[in-house]
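Structure, all two chains, one model.
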Amino acid sequence: MSNLAVLPIILPLLFGIILALTHNRIPLSRFLTKTFTIINLGVVSYITFRVFNQGTITLETGGWEAPYGIVIVADSLAMLLVLTTNIIAVACAFYAPHSLSERQEKYYFYPFFLLLITGVSGAFLTGDLFNLFVFFEVLLMASYGLIVLGGDKVQLRESIKYVIINLFSSMLFVTAVAFLYSVVGTINMAQIAERVQEVEQQGILTTIAILFFFVFATKAALFPLYYWMPKSYIVPNPVVSALFGALLTKVGIYSILRMFSLIFIHNIDFTHPLFIWIAGLSLIFGVIGSISTNNVKLIVAYNIIPAVGFLIMGIGVFNEDALSGTIYYLVHDMFIKAVLFLIVGVIVYVAGTSDLRKMNGLINYYPLLGWLLFISAFVLAGIPPFSGFIGKLLLLKGALSVDEVIIVLIALISSLLILYSIMKIFINGFWGEKQESDNIKLKSTKGFMGPIVFLLEFSVMLGIGAEFVYPPIASISEYLLNPELYIDSVLKE
Amino acid sequence: MIFAVFLPLLFALFVPYISKIKAKVHTGIFVLIIPILIFLYFIRFIGTDFSPVTETISWIPSLGINLTFYLDGLSLLFVLLISGIGSLVVLYSIYYLHKSERLGHFYVYLLMFMAAMLGVVLSDNVFVLYMFWELTSISSFLLIGYWHYNQRSRYGALKSMLITVFGGLSMLGGLILLSVVTNTTSIQSMIAMSDVILNNDYLPLILTLLLLGAFTKSAQFPFHIWLPDAMEAPTPVSAYLHSATMVKAGIFLVARFSPIFAGYEWFFIIVSIFGIATLCWGSYMAVRQTDLKAILAFSTISQLGMIMAMLGFGTEVAIFAAVFHILNHATFKGSLFMVAGIVDHETGTRDIRKLGGLLTFMPITATLALFGTFSMAGIPLPFLNGFYSKELFFDATLHLNEGTLPITNFLVQIIPYLAVFGSIFTFVYSLYFVFGVFGGKKQIDQLPKKPHEAPIGMLVSPIVLVLGIILIGLFPNMVNGTFIAHAAQAVSGVPIEKDIYFWHGFITPFFMSLAVVGIGFVLFLTRAKWAKVYHAVPGNFSFNGVYDWTLSKMDTVPSKITNTYMTGSLRLYAALILSTVFLITLGALLLTNGFTISFDNLAEITVLEIAVVTIMAVAAIATIFARHNVSAILILGVVGYGLAILFVIYRAPDLALTQLVIETITVALFLLCFYHLPNLRSPNEQTGYKFTNALIAIGFGALMTVIGIAAHSSKWFDTISEYFLETSYKLGGGDNVVNVILVDMRGLDTLFEIVVLGIAALAIFSLIKLKRNKGAE
């Protein structure tokens, strides 16, 4: 029991409120945002360190004991993701001032940004199913604010779809919570797990589990529920796209991982093969989408779908290697998706268009940008020694050890097409002749590159330094395979 | 040894600085030191008493991924090729590439490749091997695309990357399977466990995946198509990557893993068929080319096929010949590429139709070409190394192991004939190359530049290689015992003692060679007459066409597929999402027998309740049929107020109040908004469309009801709400349980719901503000 557990939620909330008050003073807001995200990262790093060394930290909020009140559970999985989230937040805080217009900054980008972090961290940390719903609302509402920021027509058009489909899934979420409460009589996740285990997930429980899966699958943009995602992710400012791409879909995946490793694990033969199917279809349709367009932003947005396919595949396979793979890939994908959206943001900025057919020879003017994209392509496709490889290796190993051959073959082919989709940008946009005319005005990329390099470093280090990252991640997956550990940490203290 | 692998990479870090600071001196001069150092380091391992060396540095031990480098005869042969030819190529490039080129880039890529290739042949760890393998593909991609302002370069770079990375990924699949099956990541340990692998059900899959990697990398038929387009790279690169080293990585892989599969008949069948097919197709197609480098590219393809086939044969003599030919091919093909580069450099064209009669202008180059091509053609002369390996190849085709499958025995019968067929065309294109360029009529006016002999610096490297041809030809046993035998032993697993002679007597291989020379000579002279055959085979068909077709489809088909459902129509999205959720959840409900219904624990139903619910239901249905937005909203309001009445009936006055307030406000807001909006209902919708939508909606609603009933009928546990009732006053200090829950017990929820409202307010404010500001601009 320690109040530490709630700090990753409360701090960004306070900061967000402060920033709402200073919104008219842009330089101050910028400075504060940078400072706040760094402070947050520091605190979160400390908590993560403690959790990995001394075990889960729980907090019964308001002093109401565990199954009754809301409990915050800072376990290793949650803290790893909160830490990743906050690293990305720092990069975005430094990128945002260069990317946003002053009007966007003035009209509450920074508060929305920090409240988004609040919601995301809360979703990772809470141990209460209804509270999870509340944090979903927080992060969604903040994302609604971010997606319409700027008020362009196309933004409004896409965000209405985004809002309505997410609203639908939220309604389904509450309904599913109500159904589950009716059966097990509790909304504390640990106690739900205990009770579902007691009745061996019989009767209606598996159906309810499937409902939950769809709630989160819609947020995670899995096949066939992702229709709302690609176009709505590309309409806001690149820094917002980066936040969405890195964090939002991953919260959905996290929730599936949590629900189907802690609670609904007593009918695995039924639920988990379904995940593998969906993984396969997400991989296929995701990469088809990613090579279907010449819009560089859309290429990256579509690439979210095969990535969540990889993630859900590991949950479907459900053994130690595969789960480690999912967690590794999850962290990797959060970084690389942020990097790619940020890079593509700069590309669109310097090229003045997002249409690949209108770009040419950018590497002659922006070599650093080009090489960052080049490296990112290989990181994304899972080519060693970068981060994607370790995750993919574990996933494929896990899948093969339980004879899931077809999904492995699909995964390998989609890796190739993922690489192709990004290399298309490099070959067509960056390679090529220098423009003849001198009237090309070089745009300064100052300020953009720092955050991108900062994040890409983590991607590279996650691969090369896998020896330092893998053991803790393997311990998380071992922990997930023993749900009593979670239950005990919440209910028996 | 490990340092030797990473030395090029380390040095590559400094190359950009060197190329900037020392603008006056050619960067290549500095780079040259690296391969020479590596060569000198490894050459000392050569000797009759060589035994394998292993070095390990831990990298990711917990995943079994370590930098374990294993130097045996096979890797020693490759390491020396990589560093030896590497030195010559760098030297050659100093004269070939002008200082105005982006030399920094060139040498960084080249050094990257060098390190990667060294890594491929030295790694004992399968995943480290894979890493270096992909790095060779990446550096090859960058080198092919070096002159990226040419469209052909971009095309060739993409093509090579797609095909080799595809192969790399399938190889990765095979390697993971191997490591799952054997529970080790070390190749040597896998070889030791070959019986486990051979008895595993996945054996066919493992072999297929590994061979896909090897065949794509080594340009085996029909994956060879990337190699001719890779010729867009600067010629030193073609000589180095695309003939002497990288394309042999596939061969290396097969050689490395062949001890595992040695006893497996399908290994023989697949590898031999692909090898022989590549040999025949490559040499046949080479004669048709007009670009010097294209001739050499197809020639390389064909030679790689020959080596591959020999590895497939798996007999001692075949393996020995294969290893020997790897060395020989590197010498003569390397020198020929350099010759082609010189011709291109000094005449300005590589089109053999424009060239001819260059012997008088470039006597040294012509001599070099003569040695190279004659060695390649396998002309029986005692100072040409190509002849020895060619004759060993014939010998090997005649002594194949019989098998149990009919196809094996069929192959054993026909392979000698195919070998002769391929060799005849090899002979033809060799003569075509050398006489087309240096013999025949002079056509000086056709050439962009006035031809003259190349500068001496450019000639040094091919001269060294040709000296290699001659020395190995004269003293084959000089390389035999010292390292060819070690390499062959590494591949076959047993020591291979073999003496190489020039003259074996009048035996079948000799007559095969004679036939090749005889028929080949006739075919060369009558080339113009039978060239029509290319109109029949391959005719208009080409594997390139298949690739281009696929690539163009990859541009169009995915967008067609995607556009069918990514229409931007929210109603379509909703229909798709709802029907998916409906179908799968229904499936789950039925398959897990989830439905139960129980009438216990139900309150009595009063007339009032029935009345209210009926009104709500009628109103809900009526909403759908309302013709106008405003009326729809008003009718929907009825449902909300009905709900409030239900709350009253169930004695929840505060909920009823809340519901009333909310309902009133929303209806009022909607009315306000709709007043300004056009009527959104589109009047003409097809009945089928409506019907489907109705079906989805009703189905989904019904399903949720059914689940709700089932959930209500499965109350297996006491709810935690009892606790709230008990402790509300005691611990929470309030009589109103709902209030205590909201502000205390679940205060966190309430806090964040307030946050949600706050954000919503800010979002709306910012939306209005930004919109208004925009209007003002």
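Chain B has a mean pLDDT of 89.
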